[in-house]
Amino acid sequence: MICFIVSMHNHLLSYMVLFITIYFHIYLLILIYIYQNYNLENVYVLFLILQNRIRNKRKMISHSEYCRQLNSAYNEGSVQANPYCQQIVYDSSSHTILMKTGIPSKASNSMRLDHLEFKITYSHVYQEPLLLLRIWIREHNDEFTMSKLWFPKDVKQILNIDSAFQLGLDSISSDMRQHQEAWYSFHPCDTSYMIGDKPEYLDKYLERWLSVFLFSVLL
Amino acid sequence: MDEIRNLVWNGAINVKLTVKSTLLIAGVKKERCSLNIRIPRDIYLPMYLPFMKNQVKDYLKADIDDRELFVWFEYENVPLYWNYPVGVLFDSMTSLIPSGRKRGDTSSSINMWTIELAYGPQAPSGVLPIVKGQEQIQGYWMHQWKQVCFILNGSAKQMMSLAMYDSKKFWESVIKRDRKSFEFIATKIIPAKPRHIPVVIHQSLPEMQIMQPVISAFQADQHEETFMDVLTHLLPVLFEKKGRAPIKIVCSGIEIPLEAHIYETYLRFFSFDGFLHISLCLLTANEVAIEGLEN
């Protein structure tokens, strides 16, 4: 009887090991397939989207809530308090903040850089805050020095911006009907996943967003 | 519907590309470096830039491959926003001079759209500087589709779940003008019941404006939205029924009735960037007389 139990136990163990090995190989094959065929950033975001859908949680910030929180952030001085901030303009009609900053210490090639220009606005498509960036460089003439806009192709390397951000040159209208301007745009499609989308974060959504997006660039 | 899609996809414009005379080497005549090419309506203009540069670079004062120089296109000294399809730029810009549209192609002549290549140390305001060549154009196009996906479905899931092979094939279908492959992937993104419809309205007069309104497929009473519904709300001065301005809406060179349903029109006329581009064009004198509108 004991021998039978021991033998069954051994069999069970070997079956379990076999199953685990098979499952492990299947998972490995799936991971290899995903790695070869899909963009890993997209897979991660897709995983978060599905997870979010299962949990049925809020994903974005409404325009009115964004306006309220932007107004509070400006009045409390949390944006102005950043040590790199040189000048700030809050437009309460278009609900945007335009900000001139110094060059953050982590930026490379800083000799040529003059200042950065940020704009905080709202994406009606993604229903998320939107961060825009422009770089100004110094240009020396025989008689005077002037600053001009610069659109380098390797902006992320120059400002040492985290690779998690998707940054691209985009044509932006400051309002739905205004003229277009060229800005580097931090693409907002995965914003809520980057900053956390729990309902209890809603009251501090913009504050969290500022920390992750704006202040992480200004280090 | 398939027939219309085919016509939209294969629509093309005859373009005469020249270089601004101030940028040519002294003594070189403008005609010497003009190029006649036929460009699909559904494509970005700078996708032809490497070819164009190659043809004209020997006649230019400066080396346009210089990293400090920006290149752009102009129509009658107005810079063109390359980030919209060529056909949309043509419809919007030529709408400013309606009499110019009167003469169509005949058996012995064809209409040409003359545009100029320009360059300088700063791109004009609003024109996206091309700093990464074809890679930048492809990236921009992909992000347009992400926006479209978000507008239609409320999330970018359908775009994110495209395999790399499909994403690559999607872009290649635009380059190779392969409609079958393009629509195969586009239909994975466009749902049967959209949340909103991605529409861009291009207005040239009284000033250049580009609007991207939020448009639902259906009104509250479940009626499908028409262009009249949207435009009377968005531009009441131009589209009020009484005293309507002499304006028509044009998509892919075709006049669309104001009573047309937007989603049905979208499915037939959506552009290669996933948006439905609508140009507001001035009516010609003949068209005004036919429609009985007064200025």
Give a written overview of the molecule.
The complex is a heterodimer of chains A (219) and B (295). Chain A is α+β, with helices and mostly antiparallel strands and 219 residues long. Chain A is built from 7 helices and 7 strands, in the order αααβββββαββααα. Chain A folds into 2 domains: 2-55; 63-217, Yope Regulator, Chain: A (2-Layer Sandwich), CATH 3.30.1460. Chain B is an alpha+beta fold and 295 residues long. Chain B has a domain at 1-124: Ubiquitin-like (UB roll) (Roll), CATH 3.10.20. Chain B is built from 11 helices and 12 strands. Chain B has helices at residues 2-10, 49-56, 86-94, 133-153, 157-160, 164-175, 179-189, 227-234, 236-239, 262-269, 285-291, and strands at 12-19, 35-40, 70-75, 78-79, 113-120, 196-197, 199-203, 209-211, 215-216, 247-251, 254-256, 276-282. Chain B has a 5-stranded mixed sheet with strand order 2-1-5-3-4. In chain B, helix 6 packs across helix 7 (179-189). The longest helix of chain B has 21 residues, at 133-153. Chain B is globular. Chain B starts with a helix and ends with a helix. The A-B interface holds A 37-39, 42-43, 45-46, 49-50, 59, 124-126, 148-149, 151-153, 168-171, 173, 176-182, 187, 189-190 and B 70, 81, 83, 121-123, 125-129, 131-132, 136, 139-140, 143, 146-147, 150-151, 155-157, 159-165, 167, 208-214. Chain B: It is found in: Preautophagosomal structure membrane. Chain B: Conjugated with ATG12.
